[in-house]
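Pair request: fold both.
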Amino acid sequence: MIRKRGDIAGFGLNWQHCGRQVFAGFTYSFEKIYQALRRSLRYGRVGPVQAHLIYAESEGSVRASLRHKQELYEAQLIALKGQYETERDAILRELDEETQRQKVMAEQRLEIARLRQADNREVEIQGNGARKTRRGASR
């Protein structure tokens, strides 16, 4: 457990070894609190992180301001996630369409190659009725 102020602990060290944080003394900066929490959510973190924010009744307006900023942040995340998913889906559709086009083109090239091969083979019937295959397009 680590006890810290959000405006001090929000920058610098990483705390991925710390699973419980206690914040005392609020700041109006949502970013500083957010950054301080993210210091524990780094690569190498195992398990959840518990955060405790302790405030006095006199800090009610600061708490309300932070709650409002958190709600705005979460709304932005939802909007960005929706935008990302829409863009991702469009890219995946384009890739699927391009894959289909490439598949059709490959099948067409294969069919053209088969037709050319067939054109290059002529079957001549000899006088005794035996079939002979000759390569080349001389007619």
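--- second member of the pair ---
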Amino acid sequence: MPPATSWGSAPAGPALSPHGPSAARAECSRGHLLGSLRQGVPAAVLLSLAWTCVGCGGASSSSPPPPPAPDFTLSLSSNSISIAQGATSPSVNISVNAVNGFTGAVQVMLSAVPVGVTSNPQSPFSVAAGASTPVIFGAAANAATGSFTISVQGASGTLSHSASLALAIQGAVSPALPRTAYARTDSTSASDDPFGEPHHRHIAYDPANKHFFVANRAMNRVEVFSTASQSSVAQISIPGASSADISADGSTVWVGTALEEIVAIDTSSLRIRNRYSLTGLTPVPNTIFSRPLEVLSLSSGKSMVRLRQPVSSQALLALWDPSSNLLTNLTSTAPALFQQGVGILARSGDHSKVLGAANDSSGELALFDSAGTVVAGPLTLGAGFNLHRRSQLRRQSVCRALSGKREHATSLARRISQTGCRLCSCSRARSRVLNRRESFVP
């Protein structure tokens, strides 16, 4: 039996390999190589190589990349707008869209805005993440025409983005019929609208012949303008002409004057059909009311007349019958209403009713039919509303008064509705007189 071989106590000399002579020679070569490396290479380099070998054979231990930073984008609802001189543009929505959880606010600044162009809101302004702000641009009447580019810049901290808006400014377009086509340059306020007198109608329109009739008190005439030719077609001499109203059938324009006469104009021939001299009314001794400043034509063929004193602005309400040329004092029908005389008057579109107000701040008014009968009121709507001052205030005053006394306004509205006048809602009560030609006209 061969003697046992001890691998740990092998004698010096070449070691035997259990895999045979070739394996032993390879192992011997590796040993000589490692021995040479150990003698010529520092230990730190050897350790580094060892770690590299371990890493190459195992799983990766690197951490995931960091998440992207929050950001935003800037967008416009329209990339171009066009504005006429003296006009405004449609709104352009400037939106801030959040990216990667952005939650900040963005300050938006508009730059390169042309001279004469403004923005609303003014630049700079703030827009929250995920929100949008509508911006309207306006061009002054003298803004230069042409094409421009507005830069929209948004910034939040170190983040910044921009967008462009193309702007075209066009020349102003004059309307086909400017308001000045019918302006009177020879009127006198002191005559047309005397102090202390309730404002009343100066203009009547004839839709059949497309004519405007204008009472020019300062020039003692009624002027007629055509809406078809946009020009003056007639001047009718009527001294002291102070009001004009067309009849229910459209055949006559009734003209009130600051003198003692009412004049009828034929709407077809544009000539005076008749002049009616008035004797006036004397409700108390030595006090005469004889100046028919305002005439409102009614469906009955009669007219409501504001009859003023010759030397005072105080007036009473009278019913005038042109067939007999007689006046009837209506003060007794509503004495509480007319303590200080009659205030503003407004006729319904169908000529069947007249709304009259007190000439003071009592807030009283009443509704009359075409026969001069009170069909609603007199009603006290509350003190503090002077209904006789000016036309631009009278409807507001009536509406405020009606709203202020809601329980009374509802009753009056119901009565007026039953008698055919048109109303709309005023607060919670149907109590506001419509400002339209089919209803109570100025």
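Observation on the second member. The first helix runs from residue 21 to 40.
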